[in-house]
Amino acid sequence: MRAFRAIACSLLFALLGVAPASASVGEGSTRLRLDADLYGALRESDVKVEALKPGKAKGRTAVLPVSSGMLGAAARSGYLFNDGGMRFRTGRRTATLRSLTLNLTEEWLSAKIGATQMKVATTHGLRTGRDGFGSIIVLKRLALTTRAANALNRALGLNGVFAPGAKLADLRTAVHPDELSIAAGAFKLTFDEAFRTKLQALDVAVQPFESTVVGSTPLSVSIPIMRGYLTPDLQTGFFSTEAGFRMVQGGPPPGVEMPPDSELVLGGTGIILESKSFLGYLLAWPSPCSGSGAFATLDFGGATATADPGTRTIVMPTAVASLGPSMADCLNENFAKPKGPPVFEAGERVGIFSFELQPA
User: Of 68, 214, 285, 331, which is most buried, counting CB atoms within 10 Å of its CB?
Assistant: First the structure.
């Protein structure tokens, strides 16, 4: 069974295109504030500080748009790319910092000074926080590298104003993801009474697989979510897990270790919103109808999810689940035909899905 779990998870994750646990950045801005002592020394040297478009500058502070990036857990790793930059000007001399890249994993800030991309500063004093579904990243100190300090001094004709190891600036970035990561939660299928009655008439019991919880009144399966995502418009995404459920026919009496007459295991389950399907990896016997596929299609009745960034909650509407064609065939082959004619039909109502989602 452990091997089946591994196969089911790997196949489902491949089908869903699951990526590593990181969040792609959709939009944001970076505030870069020059050190007060450095800014004073630049003014004494008649050096003006300007922004490169689309950035904006006022005094010693520049605000640059974040163009893209990836962030890891709690925004303490990953990288961010910024548009625009800063320009230092004195007379006919200029030095520019453009193509700023913040690398949180390796703890440095790089930029192109003139035509050369280099590590401009090492980062210190990282603090992170929440901004609705987004993240806030604060760095208390960006310390100049020797190479960057020499390049800036040389370009502007300055004598040691930019000092290696000295504080260049502090930084504050606020970013929002282009997809909402789901860290936990569950999707619950409550079986319709008519479908439950069919199972009961065939002596088929629904049992948990892995960490699924089975309820009896009414019959339901609550399947925990391992991971998932939603796009900000809440129209596309998926939820996935290693868990699922078993359907067992003709089990042995209590205390007797014998295989059932027929068994169906649906593991590595997931829900894909684009195709509105509940699917997983199926293992069934005695009839060989194993493989990946949709257990049911979902009908949300035109309703969509709602999100509240302030409370960081996502509410999914309930969905009617209708039996998929291949699953109807498999249920008939394994449970119905040994006892009589087929009773399961493609498109028949299985039950209602409901959701509990916890954003990362």
Answer: 331
DSSP notation for 298-321 = EE-TT---EEETTTTEEEPPPEEE
**258: confidence class by pLDDT, cuts 50, 70, 90:** low
pLDDT band at 339 (very low <50, low <70, confident <90, very high): confident
Q: Between these two residues, 326 and 358, which has the higher pLDDT value?
A: 326
User: How many whole angstroms separate alpha carbon 15 and alpha carbon 8?
Assistant: 11
- 268/255 Cα distance (integer angstroms): 29
| Cα–Cα distances in angstroms (integers) from residue 87 to residues 95, 265, 272, in the given order | 6, 63, 47
Burial of 36 (0-12, 13-18, 19+ CB in 10 A): exposed
Q: What is the mean pLDDT of residues 250-259?
A: 68
Rounded to whole angstroms, the Cα distance separating 85 from 195 reads 63
Band of residue 23 on the pLDDT scale cut at 50, 70, 90: confident
Cα–Cα dist 224/272, whole Å? 15
Task: Report residue 260 CA to chain centroid gap.
Answer: 39
Does position 36 have pLDDT exceeding 90, yes or no?
A: yes
Report d(CA 95, CA 119) in Å as an integer: 15
Distance CA(291)–CA(166), nearest Å, equals: 61
- Residue 102: name the closest of 134, 130, 70, 132 by CA: 70
Tokens encoding 15: 């089908």
Residues 6+ apart with CB under 8 A from 283: 4, 8, 264, 265, 267, 290
Q: Which two tokens stand for residue 55?
A: 């950035």
DSSP string, 112-150: EETTEEEEEEEEEEEEEEEETTEEEEEEEEEEEPHHHHH
> What is the SS3 string spanning 42-91?
HHHCCCEEEEECCCEEECCEEEEEEEEEEECHHHCCEEEEECCEEEEEEC
- For residue 358, give every residue at least 6 positions away whose Cβ sits within 8 Å of its Cβ, in sequence order, or none: 182, 183, 184, 185
Instruction: At 325, give phi and psi (nearest 5°).
Output: -60, -45
pTM (whole model) above 0.85: no
